[in-house]
Design brief:
heterodimer, A: alpha+beta, Uridine Diphospho-n-acetylenolpyruvylglucosamine Reductase, domain 3, five-stranded antiparallel β-sheet, 36% helix, globular, B: alpha+beta, Ubiquitin-like (UB roll), DNA polymerase, domain 1, 2 domains, five-stranded mixed β-sheet
Chain lengths: 289, 162
């Protein structure tokens, strides 16, 4: 299994990467960590004529925590996100999700932006982006635009990014309430694999233990990761009693359209969606206490 | 068809190595086929088995999941680079012999890189942390138990040597 021939260029800046992508159009692909792209090239599922390497662009490796959101660069390594204490305190779902992503060797090289751009519907980081409503900054030689995760994920392994655009930065909402809890959980064939079904939840409680805000997302049960803002909003005002959580989890699972494959039927996946959504919400509740 | 060649300069096990490589040559193929550093094994070639693990700038990565041209300007340490300068086994390597942490040896170089990466950043790992660190390395012989024991023994010996 060897990649087909291609030409390589290493971009020294985002501007240069955009210029290279504009010049080569559909025949070029940016490469970040390569943990999904390189195997796909080895299997010849993807055959770009040009690879634009963005690994040496220091500006794409930032981790910055601001008041209302945290910023990561498109080429920030997963291990850097995993180790960042401030980021873990402000956007805890990232570290919680990364515990399920690949292995040490792949997280050392794999990037956050690469995982989002790869857009596997069962991948963990896209689910976090969708659940929290992350904003993705795309740049091209013509300018830049920002998309919500909902707009960015267009379908299985498909994003709204054009061939001449490079993902530059991701902004992760950081909840400012005093009592915030979150949880990520999944079922996969082996630890580190893509999820069969994954669930992410985050809740905020007031001083009296009443829920003021809730977010819930499910992965592996549709063409893109799914979020359920309206259904989760029904938890506001409750004390997150098991009954309220179970009802929300059941309604969210009903909205999913999973497929069947060798590993699981669609009914089993929908069952997992309900169970894992409830489990994630309960764990988030305990974290917030 | 002739492929374009790219000049690279990589520090491999402390020595500067330069080469002309086609873009699609993976790092592991360059290490093995061109530099003859055959201690690094190539198993699945798509990032599942962990046999090709090497350190890139001190951190374990899979060398089948990057191209040699991408290593230009970086430091690579292979299993050959773990041994002591005189060629004697490192504490970790010796611990694998002691606890019988290998049988066929195919996965061993990758496991050694993963375990050394762990010990470099965490000299007192718990069993769970050891299992997590080698979780990306498949071994079909040992059942992993003796590998875990080897890493525990190495951590103990390194502590005593201090």
């Amino acid at each position: 299994m060897k990649s087909a021939p291609f030409e390589y260029c290493r971009a020294a800046s985002v501007a240069e990467a955009c210029e290279l992508l504009a010049r080569h159009g559909d025949s070029a692909k940016p490469i970040a960590g390569g943990q999904s792209l390189v195997p796909m090239m080895a299997m010849r599922l993807v055959r770009p004529a040009w690879l634009v390497d963005i690994n040496e662009i220091a500006a794409l490796k930032l981790v910055a925590v601001e008041k209302e959101f945290a910023r990561t660069g498109a080429c920030t390594r997963q291990c850097a996100v995993e180790r960042d204490e401030l980021l873990a305190a402000r956007v805890p779902l990232l570290r919680q999700a990364l515990a399920f992503v690949g292995h040490v060797q792949t997280r050392n090289r794999g990037t956050v932006g690469g995982s989002l751009a790869h857009a596997d519907p069962a991948a963990e980081l896209p689910l976090v982006a969708r659940t929290l409503g992350a904003r993705l900054l795309l740049r091209s030689s013509k300018g830049s635009r920002t998309l919500d995760a909902e707009q960015f994920f267009a379908g299985p392994m498909t994003t709204a990014a054009r061939a001449d655009e490079c993902l530059e930065e991701i902004r992760w909402p950081a909840w400012s309430e005093k009592r915030v809890g979150s949880a990520f959980t999944e079922i996969s064939i082996r630890h580190g694999d893509f999820a069969m079904v994954a669930a992410a939840a985050q809740v905020a409680l007031d001083a009296g233990g009443r829920c003021t805000r809730a977010a819930l997302g499910l992965g592996g049960v549709g063409g893109t990761p799914l979020a359920f803002p309206e259904i989760a909003a029904r938890l506001a005002g409750t004390k997150l009693e098991d009954g309220a959580i179970d009802a929300v989890a059941a309604d969210a699972a009903k909205e999913t359209e999973p497929g069947s494959d060798l590993h699981a039927t669609k009914d089993y996946r929908r069952h997992l969606a309900r169970v894992l959504a409830a489990r994630a919400l309960r764990q988030a509740r305990e974290e917030a206490k | 068809m002739s492929e374009a060649l790219y000049t690279i300069e990589v520090q491999v096990n402390g020595a500067k190595r330069t080469a002309q490589v086609p873009a699609r040559l993976t790092l592991v193929d360059w290490l093995r086929d061109e530099l003859r550093l055959t201690g690094t094994h190539v198993g699945c070639e798509h990032g599942i088995c962990g046999a090709c693990s090497v350190m890139l700038d001190g951190e374990p990565v899979r060398s089948c999941l990057m191209y040699a041209v991408q290593a230009n300007g970086h430091r690579v340490t292979t299993v050959e680079g773990l041994a002591n300068p005189g060629g004697t086994l490192s504490v970790l390597q010796d611990s694998f012999c002691e606890t019988h942490g290998l049988q066929c040896g195919y996965c061993t170089s990758g496991v050694l890189i993963a375990a050394q990466g762990l010990l470099n950043s965490n000299p007192n790992p718990t069993e769970e942390q050891i299992r997590d660190a080698i979780g990306g390395n498949l071994c079909r012989c040992t059942g992993y138990q003796q590998i875990v024991e080897a890493v525990e023994l190495a951590a103990k010996r390194m502590k005593e040597a201090k």
